[in-house]
Amino acid sequence: MSFFFDKDTITAEDVSQLDANSASLGIPNGYLMECAGLQATNKIYEHYKLNSSSSVVIMCGIGNNGGDGLCIARHLATRGISVFVILLGDSIHIRTQESRLNWELVNTLTLKIRSYSIKNIKQLKTLCKSEFFMNADIIIDALLGTGVTGKIREPISTAIDMINQSNLPKISIDVPSGMNPDTGQITEKSVNCDFCITFHAKKKGFANIKTWVAPIGIPLEASLFIGDGDLRSAIKKRDKDFHKGQYGKLLVIGGSSSYSGAPSLAAMSALELGIDLCICFVPKGIGNVVRSFSPNLIVQEGVAENFSNSDFLQAKKLSNWADAVLIGPGLGKDPKTVEFFEKYILWILGKKIPCVVDADGIKMLGKLFKESKIARLTSSIVITPHMEELKSIVRFKNLPKFDEIEKRTKKLISILEKIGGVILVKGVYDYVIKISKKRSICRVNRSGCPEMAVGGTGDVLAGLTSAFLSIGNSPFNSACAAVYLNGLLGESAKKSYGPRIHATDMIKNLKSFLLFKKF
Ligand SMILES: NC(=O)C1=CN([C@@H]2O[C@H](COP(=O)(O)OP(=O)(O)OC[C@H]3O[C@@H](n4cnc5c(N)ncnc54)[C@H](O)[C@@H]3O)[C@@H](O)[C@H]2O)[C@@H](O)CC1
Ligand SMILES: Nc1ncnc2c1ncn2[C@@H]1O[C@H](COP(=O)(O)OP(=O)(O)O)[C@@H](O)[C@H]1O
Ligand SMILES: [K+]
């Protein structure tokens, strides 16, 4: 299944994404910690040929890396090994439920485990001179993992020194504490481990570390199906010192004499997601209709009641201002608009400004492909066709059913390789595909409900995709996060208002939904 989204090395961000996606699939975080603890225990037990006369020191932090260490302590003790647990910090500060549970369990098992929580460095130094510490067979480093940030603080800093000063064999859990797992950088100090037992996949920054990778039950589905983790990481946090415009400037080009709702729905979705600024560039005569949706929208009108080449200069100017562009919703099919679109799209393909093409824009793209005016889309373009729209761009007959994932993915990739770009194929399951010469990848979205098959929900999706682009996400990640959120909004609108939902109900629910889900 190499076309699915599995990676050889992963970052801390990937880890938290996979973790949250596993939770979306119903796998509690504590299960993963239990697997991690048991896998590490098995490896250590076999590698060092431990037996009931062995003794082990485990240094634990107050995050989940420490939780893994506490879990290992329990499993080693179960095998009759004497364990000496040192928690670096007060137990009331343990950060997660899973780690706290493991701390409580460690303190319930009294036969083979002794545990200490360190209040100050002096206490730590005394413990490190104790007979147990000096005579142990190995020392396990579960101080810091993928959650490390900034300079190493006390008492962890001294604990790292203590581990490094000891002559015992040293095993690091997940990450050698102190090392940045994404870059391999050691700002100050890190544990000089003999080897590292790392979970799920090797971390990106590991170069010269002896590593053993342990699977911990993160299922393939957590990488294949888009979930909470994707959405959480796409909703980027505003930096404290951000000023207006740094969290997304979006340009929506759409609308025509017949359609004013489509660009309005897209722009409103983007605004409700929380981006800073959205300019709607619409043809003359519909500006006030779009304005009436919200005073927060900035609306500019073109020269005539349908776009034409006379609007090209203004479209270019506004695009250069924007972080991302959405073109297509409600554009119509006026021949002059088709000319304008062609000119604009050829320009933007050359500029690499992140851009979403939807609705009428997709049909016009199809024409450009047919006339060989475009050979290939660039990786900065996302198109969001449903099946019929996709047929206007590339020829194909039938596809395997929506839930025959492996077959459908293979077929879609072979079809889409001809056109390139990032393609979000809408349907009961949405398929987000990034075509690349090296290796094309596919993610699948299962959120959403049949009640969403009404006018306007596609415009909301296009608005969300371009909004995610405007705050700095990659085209692929933007499409994934948007289609997942769009489906959740459909489900949530159905819960709030019953089966007769409109696109406006989805937008209405956006802010409270994100707040409720703590995004
Ligand atoms: N996400 C997953 O899928 C799983 C993660 N697991 C473990 O969880 C770890 C990540 O857990 P967390 O996110 O809680 O992070 P960590 O356990 O790496 O550490 C986070 C805590 O350490 C402290 N800290 C961070 N930087 C520090 C510094 N520079 N100096 C001193 N203290 C510092 C802070 O109190 C912070 O809350 C992984 O490395 C792995 O060991 C496992 O339990 C298995 C499942
Ligand atoms: N039957 C369905 N089940 C689940 N989701 C659906 C269904 N029909 C449409 N959707 C979702 O609604 C959104 C809009 O899709 P669609 O109606 O095809 O767009 P458009 O408005 O462009 O025609 C997409 O995210 C799609 O996944
Ligand atoms: K560690």
TrEMBL record:
Binds 1 potassium ion per subunit. Residues 15-224 form the YjeF N-terminal domain. It catalyses: (6R)-NADHX = (6S)-NADHX; (6S)-NADPHX + ADP = AMP + phosphate + NADPH + H(+); (6S)-NADHX + ADP = AMP + phosphate + NADH + H(+); (6R)-NADPHX = (6S)-NADPHX. Keywords: ATP-binding, Isomerase, Lyase, Metal-binding, Multifunctional enzyme, NAD, NADP, Nucleotide-binding, Potassium. One of its GO terms (biological process) is metabolite repair. (6S)-NADPHX binds at residues 64-68, 145-151, 174, 262, 330, 386, 459. K(+) binds at residues 65, 141, 177. GO terms for molecular function: ADP-dependent NAD(P)H-hydrate dehydratase activity; ATP binding; kinase activity; metal ion binding; NAD(P)HX epimerase activity. It comes from the Archaea. Its cofactor is Mg(2+); K(+). AMP binds at residue 458. Residues 227-517 form the YjeF C-terminal domain. PROSITE patterns: YJEF_C_1, YJEF_C_3, YJEF_N. Its EC number is 4.2.1.136, 5.1.99.6. In the C-terminal section; belongs to the NnrD/CARKD family. In the N-terminal section; belongs to the NnrE/AIBP family. Catalyzes the epimerization of the S- and R-forms of NAD(P)HX, a damaged form of NAD(P)H that is a result of enzymatic or heat-dependent hydration. This is a prerequisite for the S-specific NAD(P)H-hydrate dehydratase to allow the repair of both epimers of NAD(P)HX. Bifunctional enzyme that catalyzes the epimerization of the S- and R-forms of NAD(P)HX and the dehydration of the S-form of NAD(P)HX at the expense of ADP, which is converted to AMP. This allows the repair of both epimers of NAD(P)HX, a damaged form of NAD(P)H that is a result of enzymatic or heat-dependent hydration. Homotetramer. This is Bifunctional NAD(P)H-hydrate repair enzyme.
